[in-house]
Amino acid sequence: MGARVGALLLAQLLVRMQVARQGELGRGLPAPPGPMGAGPCGQRSIQSRVVGGKDSELGRWPWQGSLLWNKAHVCGASLLSRRWVLSAAHCFRRNSDPSEWTVQFGELTSAPSFWNLRASRRRYGVRSIILHSRPLKLSQGDIALVKLSSSVTYSKHIRPVCVLASSSEFQNRTDCWVAGWGHPSSLPTALPAPYTLQEVQVSIINQSRCSFLFRQPVSHSPARAAAICAGSEDGSRDTCRGDSGGPLVCEKSGLWIQIGVVSWGVGCGRPNRPGVYTNVSTHFSWIQKLVAHSTPRPDASRLLLSCLALLWAPPLLPLACAHLSR
Q: Which residue intervals define the domain Peptidase S1 in the entry (predicted)?
């Protein structure tokens, strides 16, 4: 009987190793078919206040994370893989000590109850924070990678988002989405209890139009190659303070692609002043290099020893300023 169980576990191990070579562990960063290979990203099981937004549903944006400093929500974030999270560099302007940060996934509220054991299991410590540029120089790339101290467990409500090397095909789209726990308006009042995740559909505004709205030449426009403008021209749909670092996503062939990171805006919800997002595709190589090069391949001998150890293991016990960073 013991030999049969051992053979079965070994067979399962080999299958998992093969999947790892083809998927996330083999490539480092999950992505749709394309420059970075195939992976389990951009999918959600739930089908259907940000300014002009509405309450979201648990699992509708399974990559959405809450970046917590000393257990309080500061910024949004998105899950790229089991150990890597994407956010905005300016979120760490005041403090970049990894030990003081955690990231919460799989919760609809940014302030789960102390008695919510599920939430505590879905809260992950931070090992390192890597800024693309100095936090105060937003024009050089307001984007940051956060490496978690332990691996995220995927579930119905927690899954990674996809990223692509180019976002040009999403220009002029009117059906992209952004979500967050930030202020529901430009007023100083924060999102009220129970602090439910807000979502809003936004339009991607091309560079020439964005330059016109900001009354600036394209060379000085917020929508240079490193940035994307999105929202609505009448100001009815926008992000605001506390939404920084969150993902701007668009659907492509049934997969959700993150094309932007909430960065800054002129006030919140103002006419002709759309929100400005860091263009993820312009930093694709930087993300790929860091994530792929720091993701170890599975060690067959270590996995085999761990697997065989289970045969003898005892059973477990049941247990609004003008230039406003957002």
A: 50-292
If you search the block for the tokens 């100095």, which residue do you land on? 134
Instruction: Note the pTM of the prediction, 2 decimals.
Output: 0.75
**What is the phi/psi pair of residue 14, to 5°?**
-65, -40
Strands 275-279 and 255-265, by their bridges, are antiparallel
**148: nearest Cα among 219, 235, 65:** 65
Q: Which of 78, 167, 244, 325 is catalytic?
A: 244
Tokens of 315: 């059973």
Query: Which of 73, 78, 132, 142 is labelled catalytic?
Result: 142
Integer Cα distance of 299 and 28 in angstroms: 15
Which tens digits make up the pLDDT trace of 28-47?
Answer: 344 443 334 345 788 876 55
142 is catalytic: yes
Check if 294 is active-site. no
Single-letter amino acid, residue 183: H
Q: Judge whether 92 and 270 are in contact, CB under 8 Å.
A: no
Give burial (CB, 10 Å; 0-12/13-18/19+) of 116.
middle
